[in-house]
């Protein structure tokens, strides 16, 4: 185990201070951003707010509503090809991700979805410990 001795800050230690702006009104603010991806030529353009892939949050209904505001949804990982067939025509590929875990069943479901719907642009690999070797191995497998 490694013990870190340097100072750590929490939310109670941070003050967010807005900088000066030439905007005359809040109506002139745009939250939309263009975000380049490090390992591809792809760019995301929208508002960088994501609904989590948690049960009751990352649903098709949530994605359909959020995409109207250019917001992103990471869908729950237990959706199947049959579930996607019911909703895929209404989903905007720029504003949702298919989620998967790293076990064999999750990978099989994920690959079935990606094969059936090649227009899907984004994936979310859901793991508890992103620093594990299994996660890195899974990312390499997906690539």
Mean pLDDT: 92
Tell me the helix content. Answer: 25-40%
| Principal-axes shape call | globular
How do the strands line up in the largest sheet?
Answer: 3-4-5-6
List how many beta strands DSSP finds: 6
- Report the sheet with the most strands, covering strand number, pairing sense and barrel closure: 4 strands, parallel
The helix-strand sequence is EEEHEHEHEH
- Share of β-strand residues: 15-25%
Structural class label: alpha/beta
Q: Give the low-pLDDT segments.
A: none
| C-alpha end-to-end distance | 32 Å
SS element count, helices: 4
What does this entry look like structurally?
- By secondary structure, the chain is of the alpha/beta class.
- It is built from four helices and six strands, in the order E-E-E-H-E-H-E-H-E-H.
- It has helices at residues 60-67, 81-87, 104-116, 133-142, and strands at 33-36, 43-46, 50-51, 72-74, 96-100, 122-125.
- The strands form two sheets. The protein has a four-stranded parallel sheet with strand order 3-4-5-6. Strands 1-2 form a two-stranded antiparallel ribbon.
Secondary structure blueprint with pairings:
Elements: E1 33-36, E2 43-46, E3 50-51, H1 60-67, E4 72-74, H2 81-87, E5 96-100, H3 104-116, E6 122-125, H4 133-142
